[in-house]
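Suppose you are handed a protein chain with no further information: no name, no annotation, nothing but its sequence. What can you learn? This example shows the usual starting point.
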Amino acid sequence: MNTSQSGAQGEEAACNYLVGKGLRILARNYRRPYGEIDIIAQDGKTLVFAEVKKRTSGAFGGPVAAVTAAKQRKIVLTAQCYIQENTPKFDSIRFDVICLLAGKITHIQNAFSPQRGIL
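A reasonable first move is to predict its three-dimensional structure. Written in structure tokens, the prediction is:
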């Protein structure tokens, strides 16, 4: 299995996990010039932008360490595009990270926040 197949498999597992937790998937692999958001979902009245990271080992900090400040900024800027294009009606937004490591899923809600003045 190559990296893109493994990533797609991880995103599918993450979507199934979120749906099982009662979230509604609004979009997957939302791409804009700034970057990509793996999953956009609705959790009640909250709009959720989720980054999925799949790893086979915890070496080099594991999946969470891969969501660097630069990656967070790209996600936030891409989220801005989604909000501007779709004018969703939600009470709040959050940025989650879903980690898949050795078959285990860890969901980190509010994993990071946008810098002031960006959303």
